[in-house]
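I am still learning, so can you show me any protein sequence you like together with the matching structure tokens, please?
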Amino acid sequence: MSEAYRVVVRYESHAVRGVIEQDELGSIDQLLRNEPVYPLDSIRLKLLDSEVVEDVPTKDAKAVFFVKTFDGDLRHRALHFHEHAPIVPGLWVRVYFYDGEMIEGIISNTRDFVLESGFFLRPTDPNGNNKLVYVLKGGLKDFHVLGMRYPSKSSTL
């Protein structure tokens, strides 16, 4: 049996929370390479509140958050440019959504973040609730490349 992801699909006015099996989407590494098992036009979630399995459309969502817990921590202050973030190769970016939310993270240094309707971002805050975010470009107000991250020859992954 595969691991299940806790997922929150956030829209401008509401959110849908549910669980999806890893087999349905792929591993975190596959997702970071923008190689999900199925296209992400919708996500088949077992809804948290009702246990009903439903195809949740993502077209009008701002983002799909893969979270550690559904509770989160409203008092948590995100860390930016911290030294102890895991070194994952890619572009370090900061994205701003229309609702004012800002997230920093690492994305694959490929053409996908330019050409596709969305891209996967691995948040760099090790204490945050988000493990992975599928950012839909329709919800973005601004996007900044802050730098490149790559492992040094002396570090281990």
Observations:
- The CA atoms of residues 82 and 125 lie 8 Å apart.
- The two ends are 27 Å apart (CA to CA).
